[in-house]
Amino acid sequence: MVESEPAPNDDYEHPDGLEYILESVLMPSDGSKEFKCLADEYNSVLLNPCHCKGACENSEVCPHAGQYEFTGDGSELILRNSANPVIECNDMLICCINTCSNRLVYSGPRKHLEIFDSPEYGSKGLRSTVKIPKGGYICEYAGELLTVPEAKRRVHVNEKLGLMNYVLVLNEYTSDKKQQVTIVDPSRRGNIGRYLNHSCEPNCHIAAVRIDCPIPKIGIFAARDIAAKEELCFHYGGEGQYKKVTSGKTCLCGASKCTGFMPNTEIEE
Fold first, then answer.
1. What are phi and psi of 172, to 5 degrees?
2. What are phi and psi of 29, to 5 degrees?
3. Which residues of 160-172 are buried (b: 16+ CB within 10 A; e: fewer)?
4. Other residues' Cβ atoms within 10 Å of the Cβ of residue 197
5. pLDDT for 154-213, tens place per residue?
6. Is-contact 90 5, C-beta < 8 A?
7. 8 A C-beta contact, residue 182 and residue 142
8. What is the value of pTM for the model shown?
9. What pLDDT digit, counting tens, does each position of 131-154 carry?
10. DSSP reduced 3-state for 139
């Protein structure tokens, strides 16, 4: 018997009154063919069944397992050092929700996160009140899922009006050939992930994680062990292909290898 899927365990809220969402949602329809394609993907169900009856922790048996492992003391499930796509178990599978070791993003953001006033960036930031191990899951970068034309329009408006740009582009590649692009904008609707600032030497990184939809969730994970109260940051360049930036908005990260400028939002067709 398949257990019903619980809602993500997310008790956080925005301090600035924006609409808080638990996971990414579709942008409002603009009637375009691009939106129809995006909506069809969003409403599709990812069928990648396994027949595990236990914890889905044997990668030779379960087609999903192998990307997560427990810390040495067994206290926390973390992401392995791997560039492979992550496919988590979902409510269509027969494995037990309470014991499956292939459900991490599925359960919502980690506890002990707090939004604070970052003196380095002069804006809101995000940190944890307890230490985070390398590979530890932080939260999803959730917002409105955009089509390419709408993303380009919003970036142009942000630049024209001098507004903060939250649009994040995740490009996935197979054998150096782009496979899928996912674009998320939490400027209007989003979750706690929107408060992570950019760093040229980040302590977090992003990864595509699929659960029950072909469109991946943009998961944020610890790139190294992170101390309590240390600000959480990731590289706004997206999937990790950082390009040297020589102009634009000034970067405030203060890293030893800081480029001096914020990365540009590059949106490819």
1. -110, 140
2. -65, 135
3. eeeeebbbbbbbe
4. 20
5. 999 998 998 888 999 998 877 667 678 999 999 999 999 999 999 999 999 999 999 989
6. yes
7. no
8. 0.90
9. 999 999 999 999 999 999 999 999
10. strand
